[in-house]
């Protein structure tokens, strides 16, 4: 897991999970680490291999995320 998708609410997290699974993108559902955010309790971990596909979905308003957390660099992007 290279990135964590952070959401405003559970509804958006579950909708995103469904869209990504339908596209056969591997996702890891996990509790949102409290040091990253306290808005939604559910996050989605993704690999670097899928980042470009997911970023396109975000830019085209197909999925809605609060922000993406870069695990390696310990920062929000």
What is the helical fraction, as a range of percent?
A: 25-40%
Largest sheet: 5 strands, antiparallel
Q: Indicate the mean pLDDT.
A: 94
Briefly note the structural class of the backbone. Answer: alpha+beta
Query: What is the CATH class designation?
Result: Alpha Beta
Strand fraction equals: 15-25%
CATH architect. name? 2-Layer Sandwich
Overall geometry comes to globular
Number of helices: 2
Explain the overall architecture.
It is built from 2 helices and 5 strands, in the order βαββαββ. The chain has 77 residues and is α+β, with helices and mostly antiparallel strands. It has a single domain (3-76), classed as Alpha-Beta Plaits (2-Layer Sandwich). A 5-stranded antiparallel beta sheet has the order 2-3-1-4-5, covered by helices on one side. The radius of gyration is 11 Å and the shape is globular. The model has no long low-confidence stretch (mean pLDDT 94).
